[in-house]
Amino acid sequence: MSQVTGLTVGVLGGTGPQGKGLALRWITAGLAVVIGSRKAERAQATAEELRALVGGTVSGLDNAGCAAAADVVLVAVPWEGHRELLESLRDELAGKIVIDCVNPLGFDKQGPYALHVPEGSAAQQAEKLLPDSRVTAAFHHVSAVHLVDPAIAEVATDVLVLGDDREATDLVRALADVIPGVRGIYGGRLRNAGQIEALTANLIAINRRYKAHAGIRITDV
Amino acid sequence: MSQVTGLTVGVLGGTGPQGKGLALRWITAGLAVVIGSRKAERAQATAEELRALVGGTVSGLDNAGCAAAADVVLVAVPWEGHRELLESLRDELAGKIVIDCVNPLGFDKQGPYALHVPEGSAAQQAEKLLPDSRVTAAFHHVSAVHLVDPAIAEVATDVLVLGDDREATDLVRALADVIPGVRGIYGGRLRNAGQIEALTANLIAINRRYKAHAGIRITDV
User: Fold this and answer.
1) Chain A residue numbers touching B199 (CB-CB < 8 A)
2) How far is Cα B13 from Cα B59, in angstroms, rounded to an integer?
């Protein structure tokens, strides 16, 4: 915990299920969280909702305000808005650790599938758009349904943390470790993020087949 | 077990570590195994080696003989020889369940990475080359080091089984379940095989960082 004590974590797209769920866990762990959204009022409403659930230190701002106010920033927006948002926040995110958890997926009658991303992955696209930030990829597979439910004390899953900056991936691993049940594990360089994002399609297929909220654990580690 | 009792499993590339390791486990489970290799003598040598280790029913043939003799066929050849081998075995593999476990990976100074495969994945390439076979993808992540060591009684990992033919994926799951410690889990349609193959690059990165033989478990299933 020492590594992340006193940090303010920003959550871009913090009104969506994944962002809100992670925000809830980080607030519970004693971190200060700033919810970001396109509209500040929506972010404030989610911040109030979270404060009512678990107390703690949480506020809501528009995405640019959130990026500027936070020490570390999670990108949890829908893939459709990913490029445009990050292009607009290059200055606010300069020098900061950015965590991309976005999964570029499509859905058709046969279920989920991975979209082609010219840069290789959402995380690599973020890296290109944010040359002055320290981009990592993590938190792709944590069930939003489990995260957002305060009655579930432990979220039993590992979080793979990818990136080329050891200090940054270590800090993001620590941000995973503060969530009870979760283990942050280094998962490789950023160029290997595409398959981690795409793996979400397989987990959704597993959820449908087994009526589950599947996560992954790494064995022998 | 009932589903796979009496089956003969062929292992193309059965002299390599992954193929040999899975062959050892299937022989131990009481299945008949035919090792395939480019040269029948090499296949026979591996078959004798396995028989000396664990007894059971195992023989060695060239790859074409192996494909013709088996009911179910695992493709465990290096990616470099994948296309050429499967093109040559279209007739022998017609009507059969084919299990592709090949991981198209490259390595450079920065470690492992996923190769671009025009068809999307090795498994989808197999499906294109073998229009009369029932192609599945599985056994990508099982540590060859663990499999091949008879002193390791249980191989604690899940095997994701992908494919569009329910009967075929169910049978392949049963082939995973006969290995102590292993669980066969449906992992999605064949079009989602690329990320499962590529995930091997992340597991290799994890192995290097943590000095482990990492595998995966699916939680909540």
Assistant:
1) 195-196, 199
2) 13
